[in-house]
């Protein structure tokens, strides 16, 4: 059997697609791998502690 010997009708071509659907999107806007955590970086920073520990002459 050859692949090209399939049926004449294409079921996907006849499928109705609703572009105004209120359902959740199929693909998310951002994947888990595309975040700081996905790259292995920690989310917490110590910037506040560093600002508090500035020497007095830095003003």
From TrEMBL:
Residues 1-59 are annotated as: Disordered. Residues 1-18, 30-59 have a biased composition (Basic and acidic residues). This is Uncharacterized protein. It comes from Actinoplanes lutulentus.
